[in-house]
Structures are given as C-alpha cells and as structure tokens.
Design goal:
Blueprint: E1 8-17, E2 22-25, H1 28-33, H2 36-40, E3 50-53, H3 61-67, E4 75-80, E5 94-97, H4 99-106, E6 115-117, E7 123-129, E8 134-137, E9 147-156
Antiparallel strand pairs: 1-2, 1-3, 1-9, 4-9, 5-8, 6-7, 7-8
C-alpha cells in the first residue's frame, strides 16, 4: 500500500552532500565508517531508524514529499534542493559583535566553532574571531546545500 500524508512511517536513511560526503545516517555502521560517531560525540545507539508522520512537518519538506507513493520495503534515492531542505544561505544571518559585547552575552571567550544560542532562540556558530569583531553565523549548518538521501521504508502504519 503506497504511503499517503498522515501515515506513520519508519525509515532507514543515509544523508549525503552532492560530493558524496555523508553528513547523517540512521545506520550505526555507516556512522562508524564515516567518522560521524567521533565527530558528533554521541554513542552508536543514537543512530536508529527514524519514525514520523508523513506530511506533518516533522522532517524536511523535500524528503517528506518524496516518501508519498513509496511502500514498505521500497528503497529510493532522493535529491532535496536547499529550498525544500534548510533554505538558502542568507548573508544577513551572519552577524558581527564587538568581542567584549560577545563575551558579555555568551559568558565565554569567542572561539571559531563555538556554538551559541541567542536570546531570541536562534542558534549560531562562531565563524571568525578578530581583534575588533566576532562573526556568528545564524544560518542552519545545512543552509544552501543540496542534500541526497538514500532511504529505505522499513514500516508504514
């Protein structure tokens, strides 16, 4: 029976960039093979099949739409453009702060790679630290990227 919006599904997946680099997966063996466990600092048990309701906005739009019509046991490769994933990169979401102001807001010394949460709930990453400014990128880390997913529909309810 083909998947329809409102169905509960469970999938296994491997997410890649267009160059083939794996950025996420539900499969622990793939995570281990591509160094994700070490890079993300999580236990292998964190990699597990993903369950959600199709059409409920629980996953990125492009993947959600691509599952409609598939059935349990089917596999597919889905290419998701930025506008159906995490959006385009927006230059106005990269902000600069005076180093003293930054330290006062965050309570930490600025360092490239530091993840911060603004008072308005936005999450960002420090991308540059200079004597006169700290640059924070509030774009999603996958903004502007085309994503390719190898999916296997494990279950449909």
């Amino acid at each position: 029976m083909p998947i329809e919006p409102g169905d509960s599904v469970t999938i296994e997946y491997v997410g890649r960039f267009e160059d083939g680099t794996v950025f996420d997966t539900s499969r622990p063996e793939v995570a281990r093979e591509h160094g994700l466990i070490e890079a993300q600092g999580v236990d292998a048990s964190e990699y597990a099949p993903l369950s959600f309701t199709v059409g409920a906005g629980e996953i990125i739009e492009g993947l959600d739409e691509a599952l409609v019509g598939l059935a349990a046991g089917e596999e597919a490769t889905v290419t998701v453009p930025p506008e159906k994933a995490y959006g385009e990169f927006q230059a106005d979401r990269v902000r600069e702060y005076d180093p003293e102001t930054f330290e006062g807001m965050v309570g930490k010394d600025p360092a490239v790679g530091l993840h911060v949460e603004a008072e308005n709930g936005l999450h960002g990453d420090v991308t540059a630290v200079r004597d006169d400014a700290v640059e924070v990128d509030f774009n999603h880390e996958l903004a502007g990227k085309t994503l390719v997913f190898d999916v296997e529909v494990v279950d449909v309810r």
